[in-house]
Amino acid sequence: MKTESNDFIIGRHPAVMALKSDQEINKVFIQSGLKSDAISQIIKLAKEKRLVISNVPKTKLDQMSDHQNHQGVALAVAAYQYATIDDLFENAAKHDEDPFFLILDELEDPHNLGSIIRTADAAGVHGIIIPRRRAVGLTSVVAKTSTGAIEHVPVARVTNLVQTAQELKDRGVWLFGTDMKGTDYRRWNAKGAVALVIGNEGKGISSLLKKNCDEMLTIPMIGHVQSLNASVAASLLIYQGFNSRHPL
């Protein structure tokens, strides 16, 4: 596993999920005067791990969370862990399933990444691959938006997506991209080892990465706006993959 710089986990549910996981946590910050079942559970879990708990004013938490909705809780974490490509394959093998991966090409919005991780966890995706540069990483906003799913879906951060795509293909994975022109996504059969490529919010998939895709998928639209939010499009495609892999 590789680690990155320090960060904060904010929000009650993400905090509970982190405290129940193996994530390394340095300190727990609770807003002074707050009392609820969720806060009591967080304090209990923190004490079980023998973590330092600090009661701080709301203004302190506002500053830590960059004025996001922290719900009176922040965890100082040593680092978010990034998986390796081998870790992703091992996760699929652990579930005795063919790999089902996501490749996110320079996604920039942390809310989109968090939402995609949440959907990926729900649909049994075995891992997500993101680029090291020009893309959002695993931040506190991503963690909060994922509502704890960040603790269950391994994310690999790689230097070169094109080289990684070629490596996946060498290891028997079929790559499916998304484009305005392609096969109707409702016809996609995601059985076998597959990776779904989701492009940047504005530019889509880079031309070099697109050349490595075995097939392009499209979401038909009949309305006036001919595009969908990246996380919404990803959710539709992920669940088509789920449906074809787990038929009724």
TrEMBL record:
List all membrane-crossing ranges.
Answer: none
Asked whether the UniProt record includes Transferase among its keywords, one would answer yes
Which Gene3D superfamilies does its entry note? 3.30.1330.30, 3.40.1280.10
- List the keywords (alphabetical): Methyltransferase, Transferase
- What residue stretches are annotated with the RNA 2-O ribose methyltransferase substrate binding domain? 8-83
Alphabetical list of Pfam families matching this protein: SpoU_methylase, SpoU_sub_bind
Q: Which PANTHER family match?
A: 23S RRNA (GUANOSINE-2'-O-)-METHYLTRANSFERASE RLMB
The similarity comment for this entry is: Belongs to the class IV-like SAM-binding methyltransferase superfamily. RNA methyltransferase TrmH family.
User: What is the protein name given in its UniProt record?
Assistant: 23S rRNA (Guanosine(2251)-2'-O)-methyltransferase RlmB
What is the species of this protein? Limosilactobacillus urinaemulieris
Q: What is the lineage of its organism?
A: Bacteria, Bacillati, Bacillota, Bacilli, Lactobacillales
